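Tokens for Catalase. Go.
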Amino acid sequence: MASSLLSSATEKVKNMTSARSQKVADLATSTKDVNNDWKATTDYGVKINTHDDWLKAASGDRTGPMLLEDHIGREKIHRFDHERIPERVVHARGSGAHGKFTLFESAADVTTAGVLTDTSRETPIFIRFSTVLGSRGSADTVRDVRGFAVKFYTDEGNWDIVGNNIPVFFIQDAFKFPDVIHAGKPEPHNEIPQAQSAHNNFWDFQYMHPEATHMFFWTMSDRSIPRSYRMMQGFGVNTFTLTNAKGERNFVKFIWTPELGVHSLVWDEALKIAGQDPDFHRKDLWTAIESGAFPKWKFGIQVIPEGKENDFDFDILDATKVWPEELVPIRYIGQLELNKNPDEFFTETEQVAFCTGHLVPGIGFSDDPLLQGRNFSYSDTQLSRLGTNWQELPINKPVCPVMNFNRDGAMRHTITKGTVNYWPNRFEKVPASTKEEGAYVDFAEKMAGMKARIRSDKFKEHKSQAELFYNSLSAPEKSHLTAALGFELDHCDDPIVYERMTARLADIDLDLAQAVADMVGGEQPKAQTRPKHNKTSKGLSQLEYAPEKPTISTRMVALIIADGYDAVAYNGIKAALTAAGALPFTISPRRNKIFAAGEDKSTGKGVVADHHLEGMRSTLFDSVFVPGGAQSIETLRKNGRAVHWVREAFGHLKAIGATGEAVQFVRDACDLPGMEFSTTSDVVDSYGVVTAAQVQPNSFKEVLSMAKGAKDFV
Ligand code: HDD
């Protein structure tokens, strides 16, 4: 069997010659396809003749005691007992996918890195998305930062950007990382709450630690409840360096922006989805890739040439600061695309190990004190999670050759031929390469100073960019942020925590501080405690990241029907949605055949609903459409869940469409006085509810325009 597996793997590799699938092809050499060979063996290769029973001392027709001798049974239980490995100490919950990075503009003016200069290359990538605080089994839609780690398998070795969907961080110095994480994780005495920052310790730390102010404004914004991993920006956060062929060094931040735009859930939706479908983001990513709707991000760099680093009123090495786009524009040079789901979660997504220390020639570190500490932590944590030889695991192996004198350690896989494992040696084959041969040569940075545990003065200002962020949000985003703070501090039961926090908010914005204090209790701040600068900046509000062309592609639209529905409207909208790349789902009171008005139940084909109204709720869809049909609407009116579906979708600011008899049904379900609905004119778009009394092609076009995302504007 082993040889047939090996040859089928080799065959796979031969068939995958394109650079884009280079890593996938490499993985195929370690992949067993058990779909075609079900004959089980022991781990040492002996075929077994039962998969059901332990070896027993049977006497007559009675089952006797089990025998310890059963080496096959023991092996099975023993292997099972040790299946789990420690989860990641942070970012335990996540999911990932394979893809490629393509470069459309060379950055040779600032770097020599092949991955950023050779436009003919396609570099294989693996991306893992994650939440930070929750355990491996926690829900996807909790309020949290999302991890966005990218591994580039370049021709010169692996390059990892271990990023987030938020451009700044809670702390400036890695020394503080265990503190901020301990404060955010479940509390030590009772391990409550799971995957939440809404508790005393988290907010106590935020208050005690003013440098976190900018970051918690971001985590209280809609950015921390994304609609989909596919609809989030990614940021390398730390400041790295790029060096060009002339030896000139530049400081750089990496940023990537989704083709589909940046979109979020509303908080009530996120809370409900956490129970209704804890795998919401994981499924969304998986399904999009399986259906060929490959998620894409424009990849950009912000560059500050060496010599200009002191031109700013913040320190460019401070990870609690953004580089405002007015000052340092983003230059988009490439594209990240995800196009293949992993074959096995554990060996790929769980065992993938990212390290900020993984750089390739042309890319370097900066003296960012958060980054420097991270460079130790990532390779260190892999030891307790995966063991010494974690870099040999298939998902972590580079696609270029690896050779050095590092040897042995637990679970070493590579068998290295050769009689010496040290340098210098009598064979005098020089193991070192020159820069021209592609070696990583460190930039000769000038160093001077005294050893001290200090930070530079510019690191001491913590409020200005928090205000910049808040000022730059739209009115709805501000109100979401206010409500988020209200929710979080309401979950803190120690008055010192919520009272001090609301006081702190008055450093940024008095109205915000008063609104939150009003909600959560305690003393009302009376005055702004720090003079405001009232400035705004580009690129901070997520509304700026609407897709270039409005699109409904990959959005999930529920079509609610019951027997007697209007087939013309139903078929028309379904076809229009499918043509626009959306995913229509039919939802009915029962998951069974539903018959159109006038269709004979004994001879008609009917439509089989994808789900019934109780099975999938409105929260799991982007938009709802209700076709008319007198009998269908009469049934839906009497169904409390159907009415709630529409009402809840409206409450979550979703686009809702209705035609014919459904117009009045939707109007009644939404039940808002003063709303303008028309049962006579062609198409009315009011508060994101699009209704058309008469069914005609134009009404479908209008419904598609809801792709612009009513919720972003309300
Ligand atoms: Fe970290 C995991 C992102 C600061 C220590 N981090 C981890 C992951 C992401 C980030 C996305 C999950 C990677 C994966 O999917 O496997 N971390 C960040 C960002 C930071 C940051 C954007 C700030 C700029 N991290 C940070 C500091 C330290 C760590 C300051 C320690 C000094 N991070 C870790 C870790 C983890 C980790 C303990 C846990 C699992 C792992 O590394 O592989 O080493």
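The first helix runs from residue 2 to 15.
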